[in-house]
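Problem: given the chain below (129 residues), write out its structure.
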Amino acid sequence: MLTILITIGAAIDLVGRARKTTRRAVSAAVVAHRNGPTVIDALAGGELVTVSTYLAQLGADADLTRRYGPTLGKHAKAAHKAATGRDPLQVWVVGPHGHPITVAAYSPADPALTGATANYNRTAHLVNA
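Solution.
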């Protein structure tokens, strides 16, 4: 009886992992379709960066990016809008839970992105060091 329960538990776990893998694959396909080849190439080539990729380039660990990336993104978006009068480019990415989400994309040298990072207390040490 115990062996059967362990086997059923393992099968349920396996199905759960398969669903998660399938969801991420489908989400990646949706993101690629919505962004188009030009945006995909710009993101892959480093011509456009999201807040998450920018923080990774600065050496932030995954925990810092997960905890403070969304707030930094709001600060960067506000700074970009104040400087240019318009919102930054919105691109699709696969979010941390496997679903497609929109995030802002910037030039790697965008002063709004670097300024927001320097002015936000939780990330200032990455650019002021």
